[in-house]
Amino acid sequence: MSDKQKNNHGGSRFGAGRKKGSSVYGETTKAIRVPESMVVEIKAMLNQRKLLFKSFAANIMSISFPSESPNSRLIPLFSGKVAAGFPSPADDYIEKTLDLNDLLIQRPAATFFVRAEGESMLGAGIHPNDILVVDRSIEPIVGKIVICALNGELTVKRLNNIGDEIILGAENPAYSDIVVKKDIELVIWGVVTNVIHAV
């Protein structure tokens, strides 16, 4: 048997198999074993999440993910607080250096960025076109600002509740809070951890 014939049978082949990298869910996937009786239910749930994620991406002005290998950029952090001026950029005032990746992104694999629209969250310091840093690994508890889909429509609101009712609170008196009724499908995509706002 020739070397050419040997290479055509068995073993791994270049370009074969599933491609690595991000999936339609916005993150890498992992194979797991599930009880056979739950396969249909789990597939249905994943298909629904896939459709919601596609809707999520289509409805957002822009969405992006942190670089898997960001370039470290260390910037001087000056000691002291500035009331009305700026300290002299002398070495004596430099407390340490700071990398904004470390400051803004705690869990890169669970983080995405999204650009805000509208003025319903002005009271929380979120303005139109601000970039929101969103962490999907943080538990969305009452009081957190969350990115969520309501029947496929995306919004950013503060998570509240009254009794058993979930309330998505606006931070602008010109906008009403949203009471999440039983017939409304709510999917929380993540918790907003930081706002990048140009001045």
Per DSSP, the total helix count is 3
Provide the helix percentage: 10-25%
CATH architecture label of the largest domain: Ribbon
Q: CATH topology of the largest domain, what is it called?
A: Umud Fragment, subunit A
Strand content range: 25-35%
* Tertiary shape: flat
Q: Give the class-level CATH name of the largest domain.
A: Mainly Beta
Could you give the count of β-strands? 10
Tell me about the largest β-sheet: 8 strands, antiparallel
Average pLDDT reading: 76
- CA-CA gap between termini: 71 Å
Q: What's the gist of this structure?
A:
The protein is α+β, with helices and mostly antiparallel strands and 199 residues long. The chain has helices at 3-7, 39-59, 100-104, and strands at residues 63-64, 74-78, 94-99, 111-115, 131-135, 145-150, 153-162, 165-169, 178-180, 186-196.
Task: Report on this structure.
With 199 residues, the protein is an alpha+beta fold. The chain folds into two domains: 35-66 and 107-199, Umud Fragment, subunit A; 73-104, no CATH class. It contains three helices and ten strands; from the N terminus they run ααβββαβββββββ. The protein has helices spanning 3-7, 39-59, 100-104, and strands at 63-64, 74-78, 94-99, 111-115, 131-135, 145-150, 153-162, 165-169, 178-180, 186-196. The strands form two sheets. An eight-stranded antiparallel sheet has the order 1-4-5-10-6-7-8-9. Strands 2-3 form a two-stranded antiparallel ribbon. β7 and β8 (165-169) form a beta hairpin. The model has no long low-confidence stretch (mean pLDDT 76).
